[in-house]
Structures are given as C-alpha cells and as structure tokens.
C-alpha cells in the first residue's frame, strides 16, 4: 500500500481537492516529502486553499508536468494549511535553482504572507 510520502518523491504531484458539491479539482504541483507527510507550497488565496479549508480530504498521485498523465496509485490523504516559509524552503531545496528562483520571485511579488504550505497526511 502506498503512502502520501511515497507520492511526494515524484517530481510532480496531482493534488485533488473537492468543491462544495463534491466535484474533484486536480492541480499539478511541486511536492516534497517531510517525514511521513507530503508538503506543497502555493499562493495563499488560491482556490485549492479555499477548498481545502472547507474540506480537508485530498487525493495525491504522481503525474507529469501538466497533470495529463498520472503514474502509480492515487492515495487518499488529509490536508491542512500551514506556514508558507517552511514549505518554501523545502521546495527550494528539492527543486534546485528553479525552485529557488520561483520561491524568491514569489516572495518579492507577494510578500512573506502571500504563500502557504499544505501538509498532506495519510488517512488514519
């Protein structure tokens, strides 16, 4: 059985959150393993964050850059929003110079509070 941490080892992860009516919305995103958890970094006022705050149920699966092709099993998890700076440093470390440029550019453009982290844990 796969865990969310196993999925986090992929270069890109399809993060699926759910609308009020239960419709799934999948977004390809960078992710990093943090112990037994999967961590992503995103814009604080994004729709995925709004959906996650209402419904913490998520699905994660390895995918290609655009999320069109998926690999491996889809894993159910529970997501929670947390401090963006901690998530940003993990993303920058995993994705090298491109990650660092993206994180730095975002800090300049959005400020320190413009991004958040999302921690996904395995469903208990």
What do these coordinates show?
The chain is α+β, with helices and mostly antiparallel strands. The protein has one domain (4-122): Pnp Oxidase, Chain A, CATH 2.30.110. The protein has 3 helices and 7 strands; from the N terminus they run αββββαββαβ. The longest helix is centred in the C-terminal third of the chain and has 27 residues, at 84-110. The chain is globular and about 35 Å long.
Question: What is the CATH superfamily classification?
Answer: Electron Transport, Fmn-binding Protein, Chain A
* SSE arrangement, N to C: HEEEEHEEHE
CATH class: Mainly Beta
Count of discrete structural domains: 1
Going by CATH, the architecture would be: Roll
Helix content class: 25-40%
**What is the first-to-last residue Cα distance?**
13 Å
CATH topology: Pnp Oxidase, Chain A
What does the radius of gyration come to?
13 Å
Number of DSSP E strands: 7
Strand order of the largest sheet: 2-1-5-6-7-4-3
- The coarse overall form would be globular
Organism: Tsukamurella pseudospumae
Protein name: F420-dependent protein
Domain Pyridoxamine 5'-phosphate oxidase N-terminal: 7-95
Pfam families: PNPOx_N
Blueprint of the fold:
Layout: H1 4-8, E1 12-18, E2 24-29, E3 32-34, E4 37-43, H2 47-54, E5 57-63, E6 70-83, H3 84-110, E7 115-122
Antiparallel strand pairs: 1-2, 1-5, 3-4, 4-7, 5-6, 6-7
Protein name: F420-dependent protein
Pfam families: PNPOx_N (PF01243)
InterPro entries: F420H2_bilvrd_red/Heme_oxyg, PPOX_F420-dep_Rv2061_put, Pyridox_Oxase_N, Split_barrel_FMN-bd
């Amino acid at each position: 059985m796969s865990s969310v941490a196993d999925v986090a080892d992929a270069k890109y992860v399809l993060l699926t959150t759910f609308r009020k009516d239960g419709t799934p919305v999948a977004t390809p995103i960078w992710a990093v393993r943090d112990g037994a958890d999967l961590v992503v970094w995103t814009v604080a006022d994004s729709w995925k964050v709004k959906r996650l705050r209402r419904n913490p149920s998520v699905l994660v699966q390895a995918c290609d850059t655009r999320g069109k092709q998926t690999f491996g099993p889809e894993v159910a998890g529970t997501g929670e929003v947390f401090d963006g700076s901690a998530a940003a440093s993990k993303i920058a470390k995993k994705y090298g110079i491109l990650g660092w440029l993206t994180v730095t550019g975002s800090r300049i453009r959005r400020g320190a509070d413009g991004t958040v982290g999302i921690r996904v844990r395995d469903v208990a």
